Amino acid sequence: MDFTNFVGFDGKKELLPCGFDTFDSEVKLRQLFLHLSNFVLNSICHFNKYEQKNFAKIPLKNAFESKIKSLLPLHKLNRLNNFDKNRKFNLCSSSTRIINNYYNPKTSQRLIVNSKKLIPAAKLISHCFINNKMQLLMDKNLLFHEFVLEKLRKLHKDKEVLDLGDSISIKQKDVCALKIYTSWKNIQRKDPNIEKEVNHAINVIKEGDYNQVYLIYPKDNDFTRHIPVYVEELKYKTYQIKAIPYSLRSIIRKNI
């Protein structure tokens, strides 16, 4: 498997992005991953600011093990013959089996839990406990896309911000729509290496629905300003193509 576009962990092995901008340490890169993982895991769990800051100090495997533990109710390890029979529970057999297998498939203990509380824990286990091994790998381009999308929705509340899957569209009444493509790619200002993305932007403009296309990448030390792109074959059209740096620093600032 090619791990080039993935971040996360495979057992004790961590796949963190190369250091960039102010993300110059293992702790900051872990914190970045924990924050961005919320976009994919939002229906299962959420790492709050405190967890992001403190779990970043330990390996990602341990961080997710701690998160699973925090999602389980306090009575998770009660034996069948010791639990409070006067307390009512809605048992979820599938979730119970998942959690039992996660802790110890040979144990004689059985979990007596409230299914409403258990389901997130079981779902998280099913996402990151694969073949009896802790593992969670995510597409970094998807994570960056979701991060930019959330930022744009907060910034342009008076406009229509649409997630088109491979791109983002911003529409406003009586104004030509803007199309945005995101990519987690290290950009060097003198040699940005974005020919493929620019050619795609040219085709989008030629189709006529958009005259502005922005190519957004993570901000880095050598990529701090917009890079305008001029295209000879579009010189008689009104258009705008830009490569734009997008900062991820707010993730660190939020958790200080």
Strand content: 15-25%
| Strand elements, count | 10
The oligomeric state of the chains shown is single chain
Give the helix tally. 8
End-to-end CA span: 36 Å
Mean pLDDT: 85
What is the radius of gyration? 23 Å
Provide the helix percentage.
25-40%
Net shape: elongated
Sequence of secondary-structure elements? EEHHHHHEEHEEEHEEEH
Number of domains: 2
Structure description:
This protein has 256 residues and is an alpha+beta fold. It folds into 2 domains: 6-139, no CATH class; 156-254, no CATH class. Helix content is 37%, strand content 20%. It contains 8 helices and 10 strands. The protein has a 6-stranded mixed sheet, with helices on both faces. The protein has a 4-stranded antiparallel sheet with strand order 2-1-4-3.
Compact overview of the structure:
With 256 residues, the protein is of the alpha+beta class. The protein has helices spanning 26-41, 49-55, 60-71, 93-103, 115-128, 140-155, 195-207, 250-254; strands spanning 6-10, 13-15, 129-130, 133-139, 160-163, 168-172, 175-182, 212-218, 227-229, 240-246.
Secondary-structure map:
Layout lengths: L5 E5 L2 E3 L10 H16 L7 H7 L4 H12 L21 H11 L11 H14 E2 L2 E7 H16 L4 E4 L4 E5 L2 E8 L12 H13 L4 E7 L8 E3 L10 E7 L3 H5 L2
Parallel strand pairs: 7-8, 8-10
Antiparallel strand pairs: 1-2, 1-4, 3-4, 5-6, 6-7, 9-10
Helix pairs in contact: 1-2, 1-6, 3-5, 4-5
